């Protein structure tokens, strides 16, 4: 089915043709006619199947048929990166239309965003928190809203944005068209659709919450101490050409990036401690091939929509299957083939089995060819607890008080100063519960 059969405006069709797309994806074929027919919609499809264009194209087509009357479409997304990504898509598809666009998100000054609204725009793309800050007292500017889009609705719930969204929706006109789009749709979100949508149509492409069929998945069972060495070992292979690594924490992301950079592998990070400009620069450098590895946390990675990602590596295995689905959906996008690799420790086994039950699929366990699984063969990474070296101390006897095992408490050097001795006495006092340390 070509795009021309979906009822889109000629200017939109011209822009789509210029992007090189010739036929719509299943979610686009199903959703676009319903949106043009002005129906509320719940759209569920795997990540990378074209959901953004599924709501962007029909909204632009409707807006193109009538003169501007202020803000007419509001798109709410959970992260700054996703807001920017949606804006880029909108600008590409609206290039032949006289429509104006503004973005609203935190981490940057409010002044330019407020000024853009005052000048008048057709489409606003925003994160919930900053939008709520700006919309208060400016409700009249949003009185002409025709479309409300909630993208990544499940992530909004996970991030605690639902109260803010409720407050925003109360300030919008009741007569509007509301669209929910997500890769997954939890029961909690389904309950919320009753609040925001009116007699919605539901479009569900593929099995709910099932990882993309184009992604090959594998698991490496590994200890925490060996994770850094295994990551470096895998990155020795050239076919891991454009790699997105997920960590649980931002400090873990920085630690991994530092280690990879030290090994000569071009790397950048995206997480909440990075400024907006730093995050956008990292994303653009990754997209342009200037860096090979991008290390990210779950929340910051929501807006990563980059073609050509060869591998996603779950350095830290996610605790819930929704995050796993979103992570591995960064590769294998738009019918391309991708690989998802997960490092799984003993404590991750329950989460892995829960994922397999949920997807009704067993993820293959594999061994890294040529990798030495003996911990003694690899230097310990700073900050990562590795295997104990040296003889173990005998078990502690009942009532025995022990001091930490380091040179300050076991003699130190032969020329230890009196200051060192007094320092030792003070520290012993802290650990025994007496003296100045109490």
Please provide a brief summary of the model.
This protein has 438 residues and is of the alpha/beta class.
Describe the overall structure:
The chain is of the alpha/beta class and 438 residues long. The chain has 2 domains: 3-204, P-loop containing nucleotide triphosphate hydrolases (Rossmann fold, 3-Layer(aba) Sandwich), CATH 3.40.50.300; 215-372, Rossmann fold, CATH 3.40.50.300. Helices cover 36% and strands 14% of the residues. It has helices spanning 10-19, 26-36, 51-63, 80-93, 111-119, 128-135, 153-158, 162-170, 187-196, 227-234, 250-262, 276-287, 321-328, 349-359, 418-432; strands at residues 41-44, 73-76, 101-104, 123-126, 147-151, 177-182, 201-204, 215-221, 243-246, 267-270, 293-296, 311-314, 338-344, 365-366. A 7-stranded parallel β-sheet has the order 3-4-2-5-6-1-7, with helices on both faces. The relative contact order is 0.11.
**SS-derived structural category:** alpha/beta
The coarse overall form would be globular
- Strand percentage: 5-15%
* SSE run: HHEHEHEHEHEHHEHEEHEHEHEEHEHEH
Low-confidence sequence ranges = 382-393, 400-438
Q: Which topology of the largest domain does CATH recognise?
A: Rossmann fold
Overall pLDDT confidence: 82
Task: Please describe the biggest sheet, giving its number of strands, its sense, and whether it closes into a barrel.
Answer: 7 strands, parallel
CATH superfamily caption of the largest domain: P-loop containing nucleotide triphosphate hydrolases
Total strand segments = 14
How many domain modules?
2
- So what's the CATH class of the largest domain? Alpha Beta
- Order of strands in the sheet with most strands: 3-4-2-5-6-1-7
The radius of gyration over CA amounts to: 27 Å
Fraction of helical residues:
25-40%
């Amino acid at each position: 089915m070509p795009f021309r059969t979906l009822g889109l405006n000629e200017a939109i069709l011209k822009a789509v043709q210029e992007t090189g797309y010739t036929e719509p994806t299943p979610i686009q074929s199903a959703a676009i006619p319903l949106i043009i027919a002005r129906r509320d919609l719940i759209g569920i499809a795997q990540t990378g199947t074209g959901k953004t264009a599924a709501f962007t194209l029909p909204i632009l087509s409707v807006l193109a048929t009538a003169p501007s009357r202020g803000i007419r479409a509001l798109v709410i997304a959970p992260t700054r990166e996703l807001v920017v990504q949606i804006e880029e898509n909108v600008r590409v598809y609206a290039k032949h239309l006289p429509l104006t666009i503004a973005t609203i998100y935190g981490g940057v000054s409010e002044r330019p965003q407020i000024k853009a609204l005052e000048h008048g725009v057709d489409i606003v793309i925003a994160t919930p928190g900053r939008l709520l800050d700006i919309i208060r007292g400016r409700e009249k500017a949003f009185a002409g809203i025709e479309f409300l889009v909630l993208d990544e609705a499940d992530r909004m719930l996970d991030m605690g944005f639902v109260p803010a969204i409720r407050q925003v929706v109360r300030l919008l006109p009741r007569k509007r068209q509301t669209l929910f789009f997500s890769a997954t749709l939890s029961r909690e979100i389904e309950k919320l659709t009753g609040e925001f949508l009116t007699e919605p149509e539901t479009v569900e492409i593929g099995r709910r919450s099932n990882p993309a069929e184009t992604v090959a998945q594998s698991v490496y069972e590994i200890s925490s101490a060996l994770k850094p060495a295994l990551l470096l070992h895998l990155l020795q292979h050239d076919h891991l050409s454009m790699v997105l690594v997920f960590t649980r924490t931002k400090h873990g992301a920085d630690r991994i990036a530092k280690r990879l950079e030290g090994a000569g592998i071009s790397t950048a990070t995206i997480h909440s401690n990075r400024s907006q400009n730093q995050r956008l620069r990292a994303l653009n450098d990754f997209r342009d091939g200037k860096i090979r590895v991008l290390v990210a946390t779950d929340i910051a990675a929501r807006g990563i929509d980059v073609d050509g990602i060869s591998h996603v590596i779950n350095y830290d295995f996610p605790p819930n299957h929704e995050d796993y689905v979103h992570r591995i959906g960064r590769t294998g996008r738009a019918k391309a083939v991708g690989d998802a690799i997960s490092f799984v420790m003993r404590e991750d086994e329950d989460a892995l089995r829960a994922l397999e039950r949920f997807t009704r699929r067993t993820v293959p366990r594999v061994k890294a060819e040529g990798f030495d699984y003996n911990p003694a063969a690899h230097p310990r990474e700073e900050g990562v607890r590795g295997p104990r070296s040296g003889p173990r101390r005998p078990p502690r006897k009942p009532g025995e008080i022990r001091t930490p095992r380091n040179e300050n408490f076991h003699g130190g050097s032969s020329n230890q100063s009196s200051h060192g001795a007094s320092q030792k006495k003070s520290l012993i006092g802290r650990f025994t519960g007496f003296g100045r340390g109490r």
